[in-house]
């Protein structure tokens, strides 16, 4: 997995991944789902990207 930090503020940060293999993507997606207050929004963001 490769990427860069594109934003840092008091509420958090944003990362832009430039390379990610399928297994890493699967694990990252699950971490995000389990820590999200609304996992349905995560699905919409992943579909739009």
What labels describe this entry?
two-stranded antiparallel sheet, 49 residues, alpha+beta, 2 strands
Question: How would you describe this protein?
Answer:
- It is a single chain.
- This protein has 49 residues and is of the alpha+beta class.
- The chain has a domain at 18-49.
- It has 2 helices and 2 strands; from the N terminus they run ββαα.
- A two-stranded antiparallel sheet has the order 1-2.
- Strand 1 (2-9) and strand 2 form a beta hairpin.
- The longest helix has 14 residues, at 22-35.
- The mean pLDDT is 89.
Offer a quick outline of the entry.
This protein has 49 residues and is an alpha+beta fold. 49% of the residues lie in helices and 33% in strands. It has a domain at 18-49.
Topology:
Blueprint: E1 2-9, E2 12-19, H1 22-35, H2 39-48
Q: Report how far the terminal alpha carbons are from each other.
A: 17 Å
Q: Averaging pLDDT over every residue, what do you get?
A: 89
Order of helices and strands: EEHH
Return residue spans where pLDDT drops below 50 for at least 5 consecutive residues.
none
Computed Rg: 12 Å
User: Considering DSSP H and I runs of 4 or more, what fraction of the residues is helical?
Assistant: 40-55%
Proportion of residues in β-strands: 25-35%
